[in-house]
Amino acid sequence: MPGLFIFCLVCFGTAQYSTTNELLSNDIYWLDGSGDTLWMVSSKGVNYTTSITDSPTVIWSGFRDFQAWPPTYGGGFTLIRTTEDYNFYKSGVPDKLWIFNIADKSQRFVALPFSNPVHTGNDTLLFQAADAIWFKDAFWIACMNGGLFTMQGQAQTGVIFYPGRDKVVYNSNTFNEANFPTFHDSTYAISVAHDDSLIWVTCLQKVWQFNPDDTTWTTIAPATGVTEYLDIEVRMQADTAVAFVIASKNDKDTTLFRYNNGTNQWSEFSALKPLTVELSDENHVYMIYESQNNSNIHLYLDTLANSSIQTTPYRDERAFNTRVTDVIFSSFIPNDIHFATYNQNKKIFAIATDQGLFYSTNAHADEEAGTPFKHQSRRVPLDKGLEKTYAIPGIINNYLREIRTEFAYNLSEDDHVSIDIYDYNMDHVVCIVDEVPRKAGSSRTSGRSTIPSEDFWDGTVNNNGGRIVAPGVYFYRIKTKKGSRAFGKIIVARN
Prior knowledge:
The chain is mostly beta strands. Helices cover 2% and strands 46% of the residues. The protein has helices spanning 317-321, 363-369; strands at residues 7-8, 10-14, 19-20, 28-34, 37-42, 45-49, 61-64, 68-74, 77-82, 96-101, 106-111, 128-134, 139-144, 147-151, 157-161, 189-194, 199-203, 207-211, 216-219, 226-237, 240-249, 254-260, 265-270, 273-279, 284-291, 294-301, 334-341, 347-353, 356-360, 374-376, 390-392, 395-396, 405-408, 415-422, 428-438, 456-457, 472-480, 485-492. Strand 34 and strand 35 form a beta hairpin.
């Protein structure tokens, strides 16, 4: 970006996060990546792989105990905002950005070196990195109350632009507190995206377009009834930039709007409560939406001719749930979605869930065929010799959704296993497996002897989708041919 002033960053040197070569958690929050590279933020830290399409032999690396926000990947670099405290208004602590270089495995902290404009009230509002993208070989970071900050992956320098101020670039010499007013709904940047040439920035009361070539800003006409713009995704569709914006309507629940940059028209796309949106490079719109106390996925097909609210998805949550075959639940709670193209124009589609990562390496073809998802998850090794066994989950609720429980156990040596279910009176209900061969857990990569596709109970009298048993307390018995045995409890609950 020629002609830009230089803005110095504060560098904290090498980060001290400890590394790992295992998946840290099955509770995955956010995803980002490109091609074969995928980054995941979970409840226990950060994982990444450069071989996600090499299933089933996916090699993972990561960093433990990492309090992180969503990752942004591009050009071989990953940027993640990290902080010891998620309070946006905590005074005196700069926003830390963690940057990782995949090529040399180096990691470092930098901090946005902004003064603290006075926020309305007694608090001091820090410049916080709310969202980021990789575009034109640089990171572009939407900063709450701080406009748009940009820096190249290797750089220790950067510059900042303020919404509405054309051809004005702030650097360490020109920036001061007076440059940035107190909290303002029209410049409080919270989300950022890009098309082929422009950067789109959502502020609470406006959606901006920024041209990085001539550093000018324009606003688009507001959508009728929108009181707050929240998140934005943009793609090129039939040579036209199309933006999908999650927004609050009439100060009520969120909904999804679409803006056609060719016709300058808004349309309400969905009446559901969207949590996040992911766009494919065609006409697919994936949406995670709020449903009672849960979240689900819908897939819509969009054409620019559509102007009415989409009420019937192309694929609903059942279509996604039926592609789950490798876990104890036949449905899951999605948290984030990632879509990318890799070699030979194949697409990867990945879902971050509470049960690990579900993904497809031939997204559209697998979607049409209903091909089961591949699954990456963490399995914790158990003590040997049936000393500890578990039914996971310990409660089955077949009246809410199809759920099954998996029996987790670890043999100290190869043996033959039988698993049976009994009711509260110890009357036999169903045999799960009968003297089937099982390997010692130490000889399996999972650290368990369990075979998930066989060692489960679906809460029915035949363990094959038959009549559901009555609600109550049930017991399982795991017995080996060599004489070891273990008992445990399962609850079948009523809705």
